[in-house]
């Protein structure tokens, strides 16, 4: 079975840790960012393109940030969810690879449906927040849940020998 | 697609686990193939045939709706 594009099984634990930290920070950031002011870092980030409200669009410059917490959350969640979702199973084989593919296709359909629904039914500034969640979080999360459920069912399918 | 893996396995007195181990897949995969939930790759079908000492089409058979 060709599993070249999957990561070693042992990395999954690291993925769960990063994902959980990312989810906790992400929820705090979304619902009560005041709690997080303690870990805000004021700094300048190198930017390819910046479009602030009061300035013209600028390319290849430094962007002054009051907090890089959102950047940290996105990186933590992306790396974490990839490590959880795309690590090999302990006994990887072709049937498991097919279940993984089916789960990924299902998650992609559902995520795209959510994007269309959000576009049609969510308006105002919250639309941006919803899109960020749909971009970084929901597809991988849906895929991981679907695939883990499939693996759970598979492992439970004890059959009369 | 129908298959005779359960029968062939019983003739050799092998469990799903033992068949899985001999051809390098998980027991669940053998279970899914036996139940007709999963059609194996050509490589896996050939490995199963070799294990049972049969030809692939002695073990796997197309059904009318395939």
What does this protein structure show overall?
The complex is a heterodimer of chains A (161) and B (66). With 161 residues, chain A is mostly helical. Chain A has four helices and two strands. Chain A has helices at residues 12-31, 69-85, 94-121, 126-156; strands at residues 43-50, 58-65. A two-stranded antiparallel sheet of chain A has the order 1-2. In chain A, helix 1 runs antiparallel to helix 2 (69-85), helix 2 runs parallel beside helix 4 and helix 3 packs antiparallel against helix 4 (126-156). The longest helix of chain A has 31 residues, at 126-156. With 66 residues, chain B is mostly helical. Helices cover 59% and strands 6% of the residues of chain B. Chain B is built from five helices and two strands, in the order E-H-H-H-H-H-E. Chain B has helices spanning 5-12, 16-23, 27-34, 42-52, 56-59, and strands at 2-3, 60-61. A two-stranded antiparallel ribbon of chain B has the order 1-2. Chain B is globular and about 30 Å long. At the A-B interface, helix 3 of A face helix 3 of B.
Concise summary:
By secondary structure, chain A is mainly alpha-helical.
- How is the quaternary structure best described? heterodimer
Low-confidence stretches of chain B: none
Which outline of chain A best applies? elongated
Question: Which consecutive residue ranges of chain A, at least 5 long each, have pLDDT under 50?
Answer: none
Tertiary shape of chain B: globular
- Terminal residue distance of chain A: 26 Å
Our estimate of the beta-strand percent of chain B is: 5-15%
Brief descriptors of the model:
heterodimer, A: about 160 residues, mainly alpha, two-stranded antiparallel sheet, B: mainly alpha
List strands and helices in order, with pairings.
The complex is a heterodimer of chains A (161) and B (66).
Chain A: H1 12-31, E1 43-50, E2 58-65, H2 69-85, H3 94-121, H4 126-156
Antiparallel strand pairs in A: 1-2
Chain B: E1 2-3, H1 5-12, H2 16-23, H3 27-34, H4 42-52, H5 56-59, E2 60-61
Antiparallel strand pairs in B: 1-2
